[in-house]
Design a protein that fits this description.
There is one protein chain. This protein has one domain: Rossmann fold, CATH 3.40.50. It is built from five helices and six strands, in the order βαββαββαβαα. The strands form two sheets. A three-stranded parallel β-sheet has the order 1-5-6, with helices on both faces. It has 174 residues and is α/β, with parallel strands linked by helices. It starts with 10 loop residues before the first strand and ends with a helix. InterPro entries: AB_hydrolase_fold, MES/HNL. One of its GO terms (molecular function) is methyl salicylate esterase activity.
Length: 174
């Protein structure tokens, strides 16, 4: 969104970090981790040596079961146990500007029982950086695509249909 705002019709934040213009992602992630009290049995990897910041991490199985996918089918939890499921850690703090990032239409999907980005934190981001639309999915955990896939697909179809209409209207000069 910051680098190519003109190429994005709409950004959909599904129970995700939605930075406020003028902030950085690492700052928000530290705030989330402090709210939940840590990442439990997750593992951090240091490609540049332990004296330097971690370069990637892998959510621990227990953390995934308790915080990420507590309402998801058990067979989906096996994906968290995959050794390839490492997440890179963005090293450079990208500053989100109102001119670029702030110009992209934003939609937020609230997960009501997310234990990682808890609903109160989701609502805080929405209040501080109001998106154009907000949807809620009852009973969904952090991994909405596992816990409530049909409801998420329905919301994404609504968003896609709305985004197409908005883009066509803009192209028509309305």
């Amino acid at each position: 969104m910051e680098r190519f705002p003109h190429k994005i019709a709409a950004a959909v934040f599904v129970t995700a970090v939605m930075p406020l213009s003028g902030t950085t992602l690492p700052k928000l992630l530290k705030e989330i981790v402090s709210v939940i009290g840590g990442l439990g049995d997750s593992t951090f990897y240091y490609a540049n040596g332990k004296e330097n910041p971690a370069t990637s991490f892998k959510f621990g199985t227990q953390f995934a079961r308790e915080f990420l996918s507590q309402n998801s089918p058990s067979w989906d939890l096996t994906l968290w146990e995959s050794p390839e499921k490492k997440c890179p850690i963005w090293q450079e703090p990208l500053l989100y500007t109102a001119k670029n990032y702030g110009s992209v239409r934003r939609i937020f999907v609230v997960s009501k029982v997310d234990k990682v980005i808890v609903e109160a934190f989701q609502r805080k981001m929405i209040a501080e950086n109001p998106p154009q639309m907000v949807y809620e999915i009852e009973g969904s955990d952090h991994t909405v695509f596992f816990s409530m896939p049909l409801q998420l697909a329905e919301v994404l179809m609504k968003i896609a249909n709305t985004s197409v209409k908005v883009k066509q209207s803009a192209a028509d000069g309305f």
